[in-house]
Amino acid sequence: MASTIAGRSRIAWRMRLNSAVRTATACAIVGGATIYGPKPLVSEIKFAAFSYLTAVIIVSDASLGDTLKGCWHAFCATVQVVPLAMLARWIMGPTGGLQLGLVALVVAVAAFLVALPECTHLTAKRIAFGQIVLVCSDAVIGGGASRSTAGFMHPVYVAASTGLGALASVLALLVPYPGLAHSKVRKLCEVYAENASQRMNIYLRTFRAEDDHAKMELISQAKPLSETGAKLLQSIRILQEGMQWERPWSRCFKHNSLCPGDRLERVELQMRGIEYSLVSSPAFPVQVVDQEQLSNVLKGVSVQLEQKMEQVTRFSPSHSMTEPETRGELMEKPLLPLDPMFPMLKFGWVLFYFSCIDMLLNDAAGTCFSSRELQNRREKTEFSIVRAFKTWILKLVSKERLRFAFKCSLALGLAMLFGLIFDKENGCWAGLTLAISFVQGRQAVFTVANTRGQGTAIGSVYGVIWCFLFHHEELRLLALLPWIIFTSFLRYSKMYGQTGGVSAAIGALLILGRKNYGEPNEFAIVRLTEVFIGLTAFLAVELLLQPIRAATLAKNHLRQTLHSLRDCLKEISTCPVQKNQTAIKFHELRDKQRNLSSLVCELKKIVADAEFEPDFWYLPFRTSCYQKLVGHLSNIVDMLYFITSNFERLSDLSETSTLCKEFQEQMSSELELFQETLSSSVEYLEKAHSIESQADSQEAVNEEFRDLEARKLQNPDSPSALITENNEVETNNEEVGEDNRRQRQKMIQCLGALGFCISSLVKEIDETEICRKEIDQWESH
């Protein structure tokens, strides 16, 4: 375990160092070209600062594919801004500079038009915002008859500066060897496979634990591996976005293949289910089952898991999945031999444990759709294509799109107005501060402003100090490189994050990587002032359009998440049993569960932002309560996934099974009881969140939950009647055919897992409500 964690740390450190060195290389290329480059080139690059900005935006923590994608976004931004800007400057002719109010209005209108379309990537919008700021600020200070030609060519200089930053990014990712996303993902997949193999070995040992103490000790050994696996998966998902840009032709040959992150995410989810089954239930006594038989069963499972982990290693994008062969090999063996293991089946978590292993080995959940469902999806897709224009219009005028566009427009306009009023020569810095910092959706404004201000301050101080120590430009440029490397690591810190790290890098870049800007200390003071003006405009607009702190945002988002949970419970409580009724039902349910999962992930990010949000005169944020609540909601998302998966498997079995009619009737009766339990959970959740005053309704809510507990189907550690009766009567019947025997074992496994998941779901809902009440009580005092 220690070797895996150390190996992951080494790989992560090397990848971050590689990213930092390549970022420094890109900045060095820009600096060398603008300071020591040939005069024809230097004469065209009049905005070296924006070249640095473009390089940092594109190359930071990127692979070659991400960099190529960033260059495409830079090109799109240039096409949007530069031709129209040249036309506008040509229409202006040899007139004087524009008035400040008119410039601010032009910036606001242009920013609104750039921000409104949904099809434009956020990176392209940021670069376009920066180009708008530079073009419009020059319209104030660069007018005049003697400079009419220069004014006309000014947008071309902005485009050339953008192109230099993009070109430097590509060169930095090619030298001394290409930094391919494919190779990075392949390495991370190998490390993840080793990590998952070690975790599964621990989980198999935990299953045989003699007592609760030994069980919890083994689980504690797996916790660091689980955290490492989650981080590896996150890194893989980030890197895989650039793979298609490195090999665009792969889209034509792998229509049905999943990305490595999607495959490993499913593996990670099933392993979380295995861990949950072990954590949430006590160990069973050693004398319950024959240890020799149990050892043989677990050895067989271990061999199959080793094969699966080798297959995980081949999840790299250069290998295609050999699913049919491997799946066929694994499906030839019954995963859970119920005959020798029957004494353990009185523990509900055992069936869930082996159900998760079965899904992990065979990718039984979520891998494909039925042919009927695929046809329905194709029809829906074709119908949506017909309505594509209408959908595009609706998205264009949606409330969120208009809000984001208006926010960018107003903030940039105010920043440019007050920045130019303070200092015409350096007024663009107020606008550039905002241009590269806009994000879509809500954000913790005080946290963003704080980290950006601190990052700019320390970067500027670093630059001023080195300018004071070294008067030669060569030494200044050399002093810049270690700072870029340091700030690249700073972006992973909790204190500064991505925003603060980029601001710190740019703060030093604009002082050390420049020339003919005047005295460094004076320029640093003016730029800090302009940054403060820009951040003030940013805060004012955010508070005006969306006056909400991160703590309040977390509370509001929690309410939205609970509403989505209620919808999921309503949907799953009406799941049909027969296969012919499920063509679209499960697909719709999966969509709602994905929406709930995204809301929980977003809530986790908001809670992390709120943790570092300044309190001012507000109550301290209850970080521990929200973190526990997010943990319970994550467990609920997992349980919903497993419930749906077992419903799907039962539906398949009910259609293909040749068992007697009485068995299927018993199964339908059990599923109806499951659905009744879920319906009770929905009723409880609705009542708990539909009452205005928690103080007046506390007793009613508690009574409702007591009623819910009374109606619970079964204890998570107890089997269903169907499992007990059929296993006692028919499992050892030699006359039963092998196919029917396997069908019965799969049904027993699914039903036992389903009962455990529903009971666990009710328990997690109870824990969620306890955390929510604790938060309400804290905020009401």
UniProtKB/TrEMBL annotation:
Topology in membrane: Multi-pass membrane protein
GO molecular function: transmembrane transporter activity
Keywords annotated in UniProt: Cell membrane, Membrane, Transmembrane, Transmembrane helix
Species, as recorded: Sesamum angolense
Comp. bias intervals (Acidic residues): 727-737
The UniProt record lists the keyword Membrane: yes
Highest taxon of source: Eukaryota
Keyword Zinc annotated: no
Organism classification: Eukaryota, Viridiplantae, Streptophyta, Embryophyta, Tracheophyta
Compartments in which it is found: Cell membrane
Protein name (Swiss-Prot/TrEMBL): p-hydroxybenzoic acid efflux pump subunit
Alphabetized Pfam families for the sequence: FUSC
Region (Disordered): 716-741
A GO cellular component entry from the record: plasma membrane
Transmembrane segments: 20-39, 45-64, 71-92, 98-116, 157-177
